[in-house]
Amino acid sequence: MTLPPPPFGSAGEHQLQHQLGTADRAARFYDQQVRSHLTPDMRDFIGRQEMVFLATADSKGECDSSFRAGPPGFVHVIDNRTLAYPEFRGNGVMASAGNMIENPHLGMLFVDFTHHRVGLHVNGVAHLYHDWDLRSVHPGLPTDVAPGRSPEMWVHLTVEEAYIHCSKYIPHLEPAPRPAGRDMARPKDSEYFTRPRTAGWQSSP
Q1: What is the Cα–Cα distance from 111 to 29, expressed in whole angstroms?
Q2: Which backbone phi and psi does 40 adopt, to 5 degrees?
């Protein structure tokens, strides 16, 4: 008798689980931790986060990772299966958004480094919307995510799975105030990895 495939995880995951003898442990994790929607605790957690790490890939599977940050709630929970976050004017490359056009699968990792030292993975299917288009469907979108800046677009995510990231190796970080202005001794961000550093130059803490 052939058992049905587990409801979560990739074929590669399941292949390695069987090869390494971890299938039972993995099955318990899928059953106890992985959800096809956001629980109330997950929704509250996302609403408190000020950063998220993104994972995207193009149609050939070439991967890219990126980072987004904003005030708590900048990733807006629409309902238990839907998230949205704004994309603002940046360097114009559109690496993450461009990948989503070719391959809409998006992985998000929220990590709380300062309080509970725990993470949350949220994976799903992303679509790009103009601000007015998404706001016409979801008028509750925040309007003051970045004062003085308007989103160029919104990323709308239909959640397919959400699960915890263990706190075991997440460091505890103390938040520090953001510097009031640019450190004039520091090179521009675009030059950080290309400009030779002078003898006395040090990065800001």
Answers
A1: 19
A2: -55, -40
The pLDDT confidence band at residue 175, using thresholds 50, 70 and 90, is: confident
Quick one: pLDDT at residue 17? 95
- Could you give the CA distance from residue 111 to residue 68 in angstroms, rounded to a whole number? 12
Nearest to 108 by CA among 130, 138, 76, 139: 76
Burial of 191 (0-12, 13-18, 19+ CB in 10 A): exposed
Instruction: Give the residue from 130, 154, 55 showing the smallest Cα distance to 96.
Output: 55
Contacts of 138 (CB under 8 A, 6+ apart): 78, 84
- Contact indicator for 118, 165 with CB cutoff of 8 Å: yes
Which residues in the chain belong to E strands, given as ranges? 51-57, 63-69, 76-79, 82-87, 105-112, 118-129, 153-165
Q: Can you read off the two tokens belonging to residue 51? A: 């950063």
Question: Are 75 and 83 spatial neighbours (Cβ–Cβ below 8 Å)?
Answer: yes
Side chain identity, residue 80: N
Contact indicator for 27, 3 with CB cutoff of 8 Å: no
Q: Is a pLDDT exceeding 50 seen at residue 205?
A: no
Please give the order of strands across the beta sheet that includes 118-129: 63-69, 51-57, 105-112, 118-129, 153-165, 82-87, 76-79
Residue whose C-alpha is closest to residue 110's, from 37, 40, 48, 36:
48
